[in-house]
């Protein structure tokens, strides 16, 4: 996953959409039963704050992977998921002054389906970057 010294970073055209589609795929894979409609809302119908947040978290994950020069491949799934979750929680606080506690739950308080989905998102971004090199 190395890039030439000083080489350009890899960019996708719509990072927020990539994040959202990875979220939806994870929800469909891990959510027990039928997910709430808001969990699987297509990108086109996603609220603007959520689009901005998805793009911001994608960029944070991308920069983290690139700053580590691909060594993030050695992280556990849980470590990867925790990174995504923490970045997302910061976005929630950015957009909502007093969010519901469940929106900003710590990793250990998150449902397993959400933990798995966040881990999937990190790995999807990681794989996307590798495939673009």
What attributes does this structure have?
mainly alpha, single chain, 133 residues, 4 helices
Description:
- With 133 residues, the protein is an all-alpha fold.
- The protein has one domain (15-132).
- Helix content is 57%, strand content 0%.
- The chain is built from four helices and no strands.
- The protein is globular.
- The protein starts with 14 loop residues before the first helix and ends with a helix.
Quick recap:
By secondary structure, the chain is mainly α. The protein is 57% helix and 0% strand.
Q: Residue-averaged pLDDT, rounded?
A: 92
Query: Terminal Cα separation, in Å?
Result: 7 Å
How many β strands by DSSP?
0
Gyration radius from CA atoms, angstroms: 15 Å
Task: Give the ordered list of helices and strands.
Answer: HHHH
**Mass-distribution shape:** globular
Number of domains: 1
Q: Uncertain spans, ≥5 residues at pLDDT below 50?
A: 1-8
Structural class comes to: mainly alpha
Report the major sheet.
none
Strand content: under 5%
- Helical residue percent band: 55-70%
| Separate helix tally | 4
What is this structure's SSE topology?
Layout: H1 15-30, H2 48-67, H3 77-95, H4 112-132
Helix pairs in contact: 1-2, 1-4, 2-3, 2-4, 3-4
């Amino acid at each position: 996953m190395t890039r030439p010294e000083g080489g350009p970073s890899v960019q996708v055209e719509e990072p927020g959409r990539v994040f959202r589609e990875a979220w939806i795929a994870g929800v469909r894979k891990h959510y027990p039963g039928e997910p709430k409609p808001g969990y699987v809302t297509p990108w086109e119908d996603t609220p603007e704050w959520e689009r901005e947040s998805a793009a911001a978290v994608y960029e944070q994950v991308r920069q983290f992977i690139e700053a580590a020069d691909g060594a993030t491949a050695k992280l556990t799934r849980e470590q990867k998921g925790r990174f995504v979750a923490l970045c997302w929680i910061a976005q929630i606080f950015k957009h909502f002054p007093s969010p519901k506690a469940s929106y900003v739950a710590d990793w250990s308080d998150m449902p397993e389906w959400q933990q798995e989905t966040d881990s999937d998102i990190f790995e999807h971004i990681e794989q996307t970057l590798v495939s673009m090199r």
